[in-house]
Predict the structure.
Amino acid sequence: MEIKLRQENEKDYKSIFQLIEKAFENEEYSDHKEQFLVERLRKSDAFIPELSIVAEVENEIVGHILLTKLEIKNDTKSFGSLALAPVSVLPEFQGKGIGSKLILYSHKVAKELGYKSIILLGHQDYYPRFGYELTNKYGIEMPFDVPAENCMVIALNENGLSGVKGRVVYPSAFFE
Ligand SMILES: CC(C)(COP(=O)(O)OP(=O)(O)OC[C@H]1O[C@@H](n2cnc3c(N)ncnc32)[C@H](O)[C@@H]1OP(=O)(O)O)[C@@H](O)C(=O)NCCC(=O)NCCS
């Protein structure tokens, strides 16, 4: 199975919307509104076109990942970082490595664009394989009341998180 990864374009919006809806349909910890979140983020200042990426198999969009800008702030400093949310693969294509490919490719593009780290809220068994660690190891605090084991961060280069401490400020589109 050949999996092609590329930046989304306007013609993909409808397929991406439907794919996200289907991917999260049976997810217990989902509000089933992730497809609307992506639409809001696209229109926001947090959006980075190169970091809305699709996976195609035989010209069908089967996966999508979005990374948007966020800030990690403390009393004296503010650090730019990224939010990984959401990542989605069509149910019938799950478990074939597409999610992994999207995540690793998004890291590569983010790094090329000069971003130093990525933050996410996600399943503790899935993301550590890509190098994600708990945010509390770094003194990075999430703005939600969620279990610490689900709050994760990755440095995209050696010093990506050196000196970075504070509270994560997500784009306002996450709360609308
Ligand atoms: C999470 C998701 C993107 C992973 O994509 P995928 O293409 O199925 O993942 P891969 O094939 O690369 O990896 C499969 C591995 O991930 C694990 N996995 C997949 N979804 C998981 C989840 N929600 N929690 C824990 N582990 C998960 C599988 O058990 C499998 O583990 P194994 O390699 O040890 O057998 C996909 O399952 C999906 O769209 N899920 C619904 C939406 C969702 O929950 N998104 C994440 C929250 S933002």
Remarks:
- The chain has one domain: 4-175.
